Amino acid sequence: MSPLPEPREDLRALEGYHSPQLDVDVRLNTNESPFPPPPAFVDAWTDALRAAPLHRYPDRAASALRDAIGAHLGQPGERIFAANGSNEVLQTLLLTYGGPGRRALVFEPTYALHSHICRITGTEVVEGERDTDFRISPTEAGSLIAAERPAVVFVCSPNNPTGTVEARATLDAIVGAALDHGPALVVVDEAYGEFADRSALDLVADDLPVVVVRTYSKVWSLAALRLGFAVGPSRIVDELDKVVLPYHLSVATQTAGLAALAFGDAMQERVTTLVAERRRLEHALALLPGLTVFPSGANFVLFRTAGDGHALWQGLVDHGVLVRDFSRWPRLDDCLRITVGTPDENDRCVAALRAVLEGR
Ligand SMILES: *Cc1c(COP(=O)(O)O)cnc(C)c1O
Questions:
Q1: Is 44 domain-assigned?
Q2: Which of 2, 43, 124, 180 has an alpha carbon 20 to 30 Å from 138's alpha carbon atom?
Q3: What ligand 1 atom has the least distance to the C-alpha of 223?
Q4: Whose CA is nearest to atom 11 of ligand 1?
Q5: Distance from the CA of 1 to the center of ligand 1, in angstroms?
Q6: Domain check: are 91 and 240 in the same one?
């Protein structure tokens, strides 16, 4: 066989994104909404799609969508940048503000795609550590920013996979340090922001290097449609617009994002249900033998088992329940993460856990 070209030297060690999908009854491993979107949304969206001229490129600036997202959040449309899932938003941020010769700071353990997209974009990753409660220490973050001079600082709040919500004082300290040394761009990943009791959205201003990233994948029940957005200074949004590919956001995605905003009340109801279910799940887990449950502000719960985490994960799979196995991740020994599902799914998950832990 003739040889094929090698990929970029710095990509050779890269591993793809792994989250195994198994064919089980109860799938609580990828943090999507357990509820499909309202049928009336599907009607509104497909009507809008039928009316769209499919032989024409979509609105390149996605102006209607940006204005509508902005109006929904009380922000001008010029501060909104939309893309195919918040992962594409993060990639565009790193293509624009990271890249060769630049560094990005992450606080581990956190969302693996932050450092993965850094590597793909040739951005050097600097790893800060969280404390034993998985919180970011504001003083340590400040010293790291002063010492390492990152171009981008990622703050994931609520943090995936730990659920940790950062205090406003921590965020203020990070933004202060970012302003003093750089300025660095502070990217607050709020993929789960709607499930938490605080947000960094009110920090967004035209003269502050803060960008908040959100998604339709979790709260809005639209993971299949791939839509995420950033809220940030309009000058930063202008730079992102130059970097992202032209016509990147299909008309199907733009119309879906617009139509969904009319169903804000239905979505808020789901958030309320999921937060109540999260609390119920947290209490039920805390009553099981040997589990340490970490406080969560998201639609998932992380816990550590006193026993073998991977064996517990396998035991759950054998009972038809798939959760996310973090047991062999650095800093997350014997930890598993459960996405909050429907009340019935959560009950089945707790029953399976009890059965495995009690050796039945
Ligand atoms: C799920 C998730 C995202 C990305 O979701 P998209 O589906 O690409 O919008 C981004 N950040 C975090 C922390 C996530 O958990």
A1: no
A2: 124
A3: 7
A4: 191
A5: 40
A6: yes
Cβ of residue 254 lying under 6 Å from some atom of ligand 1: no
Tell me how far apart the alpha carbons of residues 122 and 352 are, in angstroms, rounded to a whole number: 43
What's the start-to-end Cα distance of the chain, in Å? 53
Q: Is the CB of 253 under 6 A from ligand 1?
A: no
For 216-254, what is each residue's pLDDT tens digit? 999 889 999 999 999 999 999 999 999 999 999 999 999
Q: How far is the centre of ligand 1, averaged over its atoms, from the C-alpha of 360 (Å)?
A: 36
Q: Please spell the DSSP secondary structure of 281-324, one letter per residue.
A: HHHHHHTSTTEEEPP-SSSEEEEEESS-HHHHHHHHHHTTEEEE
**Cα 169 from chain centre:** 22
Do 91 and 239 reside in the same domain of the chain?
yes
Both 15 and 106 in one domain: the answer is: no
SS3 at position 17 = coil
pLDDT of residue 12: 83
Read off the pTM. Answer: 0.96
The answer, yes or no, to whether any atom of ligand 1 lies below 6 A from the CB of 191, is yes
pLDDT of residue 360: 62
Instruction: Please give the number of the atom of ligand 1 that sits closest to the Cα of 226.
Output: 7
Show the domain range for 292. 9-37+265-357
Task: Give the residue from 262, 282, 297 where a domain finishes.
Answer: 262
Q: Are residues 192 and 295 in the same domain?
A: no
**Contact criterion met (CB below 8 Å) for 250 and 60:** no
Q: What is the pLDDT of residue 359?
A: 84
CATH of the domain at 204: 3.40.640.10
Q: How far is the CA of 359 from the centre of ligand 1 (A)?
A: 35
Q: Does 272 lie in the same domain as 213?
A: no
Query: Count of domains in the chain?
Result: 2
Asked if residue 334 belongs to a domain, the reply is yes
* 99 alpha carbon – ligand 1 mean position (Å): 21
The CA 87 to ligand 1 mean position distance, Å, reads 6
Give the CA radius of gyration of the chain. 21
Domain endpoint, select from 235, 262, 289: 262
